[in-house]
Amino acid sequence: MWLIASLNFFIVQVLPGDPTRVLLPRGSSNVTQGGSDLRAQLIRQWGLDQPITTRYVVYFANLAQGNLGTTITYQKGGFPVAGVIAPRLSTTLVLVGLATAATMWLGIVLGRISGWRRGRRVDVAITMGTLVGYSMPSFWVSLMLIFALAYIVPIFPAYGVQSRDAATFDPLTRVLDQLYHYFLPVLTFVITNVAWFSLTLRNSLTDTLPEDYMLTAMAKGLTQKQQLRKHAMPNARLPVLTASALYFGWVVSGAIVIEEVFNIPGLGQLTWDATRVRDFPLLSGVFLVATLGVVVANAVADVLYLYLDPRVREA
Predict the structure, then answer these.
(1) Which residues contact 294 (CB under 8 A, 6 or more apart)?
(2) Per residue, what are the HEC states of 140-162?
(3) What share of the chain is helix, strand, coil (3-state, %, to 5)?
(4) Is the pLDDT of residue 196 over 80?
(5) C-alpha 75: how far from its chain's center?
(6) Are 119 and 202 in contact (CB under 8 A)?
(7) pLDDT tens-digit profile of 260-302?
(8) Mean pLDDT of 69-75
């Protein structure tokens, strides 16, 4: 985490020019808020007139206080980056959580079928089908689903996270309304990423099935379902757990296209908006949150390994 934060700091430092000139509105160097010069406020807050070592210390001191910087592209006069990221991050986590759960469940089901029947027609069909979805661009899949299921057959909404009159709904109806709006984005995630889980589990099962303990289970007279559930899956699921951690961390920062197409106010859309207006403090905050998400997801996977694999506990 320290290395990530340090890299995030130095990436911004190598950008040319005066950071305050980029932050402040063009043609203005004396934007005021409550009688104080905003440019001077930024220089003082982040030590921009100090050596880089001093700025490095100031940067981490601000991070320790939860201060990710100031953005002026969302509210004139300056606004905390953390205050902009927080609501967007919650939206992305809900979307990514639903998408990850659906994609993982379907991937495990397809991977079990494909791995247990490796080399057969059903294996070839599942492998080819998931690879076709994986190879298609997510923006194209999004547009095709909107065209087919929102315009040709208007079943689902084309954009947004809730209905216009959602404020009048009771809590349960509001949750169902959000799930209804999330259906097409989640379906896009499933189509384009299910191969990540199905092929991982299939390859893991392919390596597990020829092991001696599987031959012993077969010789003991266990049914195929018992062999798969009690002996093959407990050993084959560990690579899937690792893939899930990497997938979750990647999608938190990789939902830009889908969120932009479906107009979902999440972290991905925020990243795109900040890139267009060159809001470097906001981009820096988004990158820091996204990369730390990868670290946290991998740490959780390492802890879960202790509970899922007795060999790790013994080691």
Answers:
(1) 246, 249, 250, 252
(2) HHHHHHHHHHHHHCCCCCCCCCC
(3) 75, 5, 25
(4) yes
(5) 26
(6) no
(7) 888 888 888 888 888 877 777 788 888 888 888 788 888 888 8
(8) 70
- Ranges of H-type helices in 117-230: 121-135, 138-146, 171-208, 212-219, 224-226
What are residue 71's DSSP bridge partners? 79
Distance CA 178, CA 196 (A): 26
Domains of the chain by start residue, with CATH: 2-67 (no CATH), 85-314 (1.10.3720.10)
Nearest to 123 by CA among 112, 139, 134, 135: 112
Long-range contacts of 181-184 (CB under 8 A, 24+ apart): 181/156, 181/157, 182/94, 182/95, 182/98, 183/156, 184/142, 184/145, 184/146, 184/149, 184/150, 184/156, 184/157, 184/158, 184/262
pTM > 0.85: no
Q: Please give the residue that has the higher pLDDT: either 35 or 235.
A: 235
Q: Helices (H) and strands (E) in the chain — how many of each? A: 15, 4
Greatest Cα pair distance, the chain, in angstroms, is 84
**pLDDT value of position 27:** 44
